[in-house]
């Protein structure tokens, strides 16, 4: 499927489905394609959904453009070549606009909504419940379906039942009082008991019964009163049960929101170091200078040629196996993974929390990475070698920008570490003279000699062989 675009002839939102056609030898013959116009029928379908009493639903793409809506708002603005889809955050419909703005503020970007999420916000002082769910078919469609239901749709029936109960109680009391006034001169004693029982009911004691006696009129009043108290007890009991149910729902919803918050915080910690995440929450600058850290770059040798011979999914599975093992090593040695680019892996020791043994931690991890690559029964179907480069020096580390946060490093020390990897040999770990000075007392290192490094000239480097026995 293509992205949604405006059909040039009709100006309607349209998507294109395409499928390549091959001959018997696997050569491509052409592409079959068909355009699907998102007609008014989709909007009518959304409008026909029973979403509470006044709820709405709309569909938008990951860019925030409205593809369809249960409202009557036009889906496009402008004419001719200037025509474009309406952005949800600029919608004329308050419920669509406010919902889109809430989702963007809550998740930071529509692209970060990877599973069904729930939330709520205030629109004109009234709470709105929101559920947004991704719609993916694995072939190009990647939309978001948002459903908005006002809180009043849930509470209206409870308010109505409470009002009706109060009205019925007032009517019943008025009838009892009127009858008592009209018959007081003839039946004062029985009505005194009835009045006393009414006072008890007014105090909240509903367990009252009035003897009907032998007078027909008194019997009618007494029976009515008794029936009223029974109904009052039933109504109060029903109201109490409704309140308990509502409290339970609130507790459940609060627990769900707490779990969602914990999931969101865990997701943030998977993206950024804990120290940096806490700084961002406090609106503090996440960027700082580190006087000395040790940077490692690793690259899988022959990966480019291997990628041309294998299926993409098999290739990705193999890489995932290798990099997952490397991720476990970062936890083991207390170092920070920075990023992966293709088949390259970058890690640093000594930040975001400074430590004195950063060079040793990186050296131990590099040796274990090297050993792992020699024994791995990987999914790539061939024996692989890894080339590793290490350097020690000052860096700037932090997060820049406002979207898709990533923790990264800057500085000449980073560039030199990258050169150590690219100018190294398969199966070897090349370190700079600075790193050598940190490791020489604890590890076996062999001098490689002087090599020419692009942008740096001649540099003395060493091979890291292993720890001293």
UniProtKB/TrEMBL annotation:
Alphabetized CDD domains for the sequence: CHD, HAMP, PDC1_HK_sensor
Its membrane topology: Multi-pass membrane protein
This protein's GO CC annotations: plasma membrane
Superkingdom to which the source organism belongs: Bacteria
GO molecular function term, any single one: ATP binding
Occurrences of domain HAMP (ranges): 185-237
UniProt catalytic activity: ATP = 3',5'-cyclic AMP + diphosphate
Database matches in Gene3D superfamilies: 6.10.340.10, Nucleotide cyclase, PAS domain
Keyword Electron transport attributed: no
UniProt keywords, alphabetically: ATP-binding, cAMP biosynthesis, Cell membrane, Coiled coil, Lyase, Magnesium, Membrane, Metal-binding, Nucleotide-binding, Transmembrane, Transmembrane helix
GO aspect biological process, one term: intracellular signal transduction
Cellular location(s): Cell membrane
TM segment ranges: 166-187
Domain Guanylate cyclase: 294-421
Enzyme Commission identifier(s): 4.6.1.1
Primary site of residence: membrane
Record note on quaternary structure: Homodimer. Can also exist as monomer.
Membership in a protein family: Belongs to the adenylyl cyclase class-4/guanylyl cyclase family.
Protein name per Swiss-Prot or TrEMBL: Adenylate cyclase
Origin species: uncultured Microcoleus sp
High-level lineage: Bacteria, Bacillati, Cyanobacteriota, Cyanophyceae, Oscillatoriophycideae
């Amino acid at each position: 499927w293509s992205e949604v675009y405006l059909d040039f002839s009709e100006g309607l939102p349209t998507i294109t489905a395409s499928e390549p056609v091959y001959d018997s030898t696997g050569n491509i013959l052409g592409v079959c394609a068909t355009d699907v116009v998102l007609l008014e029928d989709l909007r009518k379908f959304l409008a026909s959904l029973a979403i509470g009493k006044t709820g709405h639903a709309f569909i938008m793409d990951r860019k925030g453009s409205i593809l369809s809506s249960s409202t009557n708002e036009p889906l496009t603005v402008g004419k001719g070549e200037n025509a474009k889809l309406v952005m949800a955050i600029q919608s004329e419909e308050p419920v669509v606009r406010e919902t889109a703005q809430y989702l963007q503020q809550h998740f930071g970007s529509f692209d970060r909504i990877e599973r069904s999420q729930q939330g709520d916000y205030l629109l004109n002082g009234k709470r709105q419940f929101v559920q947004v769910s991704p719609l993916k078919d694995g072939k190009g469609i990647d939309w978001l379906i948002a459903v908005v239901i006002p809180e009043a749709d849930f509470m209206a029936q409870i308010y109505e039942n409470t009002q009706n109960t109060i009205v019925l109680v007032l009517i019943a009391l008025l009838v009892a009082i009127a009858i008592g006034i009209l018959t007081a001169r003839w039946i004062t004693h029985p009505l005194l008991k009835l009045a006393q029982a009414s006072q008890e009911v007014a105090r909240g004691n509903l367990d009252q019964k009035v003897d009907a006696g032998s007078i027909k009129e008194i019997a009618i009043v007494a029976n009515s009163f008794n029936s009223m108290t029974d109904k009052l007890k039933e109504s109060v009991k029903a109201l109490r049960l409704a309140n308990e149910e509502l409290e339970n729902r609130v507790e459940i919803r609060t627990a769900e929101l707490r779990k969602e918050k914990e999931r969101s915080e865990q997701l943030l910690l998977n993206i950024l170091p804990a120290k940096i995440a806490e700084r961002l929450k406090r609106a503090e600058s996440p960027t700082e200078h580190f006087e000395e850290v040790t940077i490692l770059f690793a690259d899988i040798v022959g990966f480019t040629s291997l990628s041309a011979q294998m299926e993409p999914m098999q290739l990705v599975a193999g890489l995932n196996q290798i990099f997952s093992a490397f991720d476990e090593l970062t936890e083991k040695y207390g170092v920070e993974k920075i990023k992966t680019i293709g088949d390259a892996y970058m890690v640093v020791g000594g930040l975001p929390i400074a430590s004195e043994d950063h060079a040793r931690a990186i050296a131990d991890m590099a040796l274990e990475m090297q050993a792992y690559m020699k024994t791995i029964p990987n999914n790539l179907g061939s024996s692989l070698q890894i080339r590793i480069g290490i350097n020690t020096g000052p860096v700037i580390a932090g997060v820049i920008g406002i979207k898709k946060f990533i923790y990264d490093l800057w500085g000449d020390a980073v560039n030199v570490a990258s050169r150590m990897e690219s100018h190294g040999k398969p199966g070897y770990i090349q370190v700079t003279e600075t790193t050598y000075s940190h490791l020489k007392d604890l590890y076996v290192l062999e001098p490689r000699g002087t090599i020419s490094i692009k942008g740096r000239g001649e540099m003395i480097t060493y091979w890291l062989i292993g720890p001293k026995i």
